[in-house]
């Protein structure tokens, strides 16, 4: 069987995520977006005004929006505008940033996961190296039964 070509095509690559952040607010009266502590943005590589997916672990909602900076060191994660209908203070969420990458540049590219405590303070970071098609199936890369260990503040 012939493998698909990795030349030319752009693929969306999840380069950074904030895993299991606690929503600190939901503001219907703001124009839109998600407000995030710059400490968390730096750690994940997510830049202001860039598109992110936000998944609500608590209720299963998923939205797409853009990021704005909050107060440095505050732990703020606030859904603004219409997104405030899908998120409430105290909900757990995942924020994921993506970039369009030529498919032939994906092997070896790093994806970072930032883990936080209940106050959105960084407790750990994982980096995953993307394999090429011929590197798939390695037992060391199998993450099928990984369970996230929750960390309380």
From TrEMBL:
Gene3D superfamilies: 2.40.40.20
Cofactor(s) of this protein: pyruvate
Reaction catalysis annotation: L-aspartate + H(+) = beta-alanine + CO2
Biological processes per GO annotation: alanine biosynthetic process; pantothenate biosynthetic process
A molecular-function term among this protein's GO annotations: aspartate 1-decarboxylase activity
Keyword hit for Lyase: yes
Function according to Swiss-Prot or TrEMBL: Catalyzes the pyruvoyl-dependent decarboxylation of aspartate to produce beta-alanine.
Family under the similarity heading: Belongs to the PanD family.
Record-given protein name: Aspartate 1-decarboxylase
Species per Swiss-Prot/TrEMBL record: Kordiimonas lacus
Primary gene name: panD
């Amino acid at each position: 069987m012939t493998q698909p070509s990795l030349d030319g095509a752009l693929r969306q690559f999840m380069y950074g995520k904030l895993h299991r952040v606690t929503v600190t607010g939901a503001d219907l009266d703001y124009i839109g977006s998600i407000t995030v502590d710059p400490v968390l943005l730096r750690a994940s590589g997510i830049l202001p005004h860039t598109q992110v997916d936000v998944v609500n672990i608590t209720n299963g909602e998923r939205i797409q929006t853009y990021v704005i900076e909050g107060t440095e060191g505050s732990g703020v994660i606030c859904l603004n505008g219409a997104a405030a209908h899908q998120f409430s203070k105290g909900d757990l969420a995942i924020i994921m940033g993506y970039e369009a990458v030529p498919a032939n540049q994906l092997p070896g590219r790093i994806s970072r996961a930032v883990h936080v405590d209940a106050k959105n303070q960084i407790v750990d970071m994982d980096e995953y190296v993307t394999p090429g098609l011929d590197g798939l199936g390695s037992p060391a890369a199998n993450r099928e039964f990984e369970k996230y260990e929750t960390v309380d503040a």
